[in-house]
User: Fold Aminoglycoside phosphotransferase domain-containing protein from Candidatus Portnoybacteria bacterium RBG_13_41_18.
Amino acid sequence: MHNLESWVKEIARENEFKIDKEIYRGFYYSTIKIRNIIYEGDYQDKKAILKIYDDPRLSDEPVAQAKFNGINNSKILFAPKIYKSELTSTKSGWLIMEKLSGGSFMKSPLARMERMNFLNLYLEYRKNFPIKPTRTLALAENLPTHEFHCFRISRWLQMANDREAKIVLNGEKPVLEPNKLVAYYGKSISIIRKEFLKRKMIWCHGHFKPKEIFLTLDGKYYLTDFAHVKMYPEGYELAFIIWADWLMAADWELSYKKWKKGIFEWVGDMEKINKTLKLKNLKALMRASLIERTLGTILADVCASDRPREEKEKRISLLFGLWKELAED
Assistant:
């Protein structure tokens, strides 16, 4: 992998991009694993953004973003214009793009009154996003829908397994209770296999969430971060929105009763837009999709993360409550 902080100096020099400041860096589950850094600066006499990435996962971000810009006919939802870019491998690259100004990104968790506006933006994105893949699919993207989910879950289980092993080696008690995990793991996999056996894979942005939407002062919306564009199971994006806006962003110190209320309010809002999406048996789809998100959150986003132990334990308690409620529904 590249040392991004060193690599950016080379990219900036070769492309005459004058760096002003770093504005963001993204991590892969741990703060020691930097996956991208974003800089603000000047390019060809105008303010611009330079993003460099070296992702553990496959990504053709500049190409995906350019493809969307090339076919997008929306009058309200856009993506930043790309000035120059390069794919340096299947997992790394960089792009110089327009700087969005005079506005701000949406913040999670969204207020109840903001959700329908956000979901209308989701419908606008789906209407204008490529329907067919814009590149050759990776092997995993060719898997049957239910197997794709199980493939990803197995990776997260390995991550949690490795982190827990380190904790034990340091003489500490594991964060996850194995018996509790085993009690619902098998049943959850069975529910996922059964539901997604009859579902299709769709080409999508893969990271559509409030924090990726920039609203300008003149009322234009910009979709950002095309690093996750790929084939995903039908229903994944809807559950991902709930994951991003509530499972991860809501106050983890809430009581379970108050915490779960926000999740099921989101599910109710999804039912409203299904008049347009026309997904069959949405209730069963959301149940299985949320089980996948809950399981992934427990294993990867919490257990395998650098979060403080107290936070991990409380989050896992909330997530196990939801997981049990969904699996036994």
In short: The mean pLDDT is 96. The longest strand covers residues 17-27. Residues 126-327 form a domain with the Aminoglycoside 3'-phosphotransferase; Chain: A, domain 2 fold (CATH 3.90.1200). The chain has two domains: 4-99, 126-327.
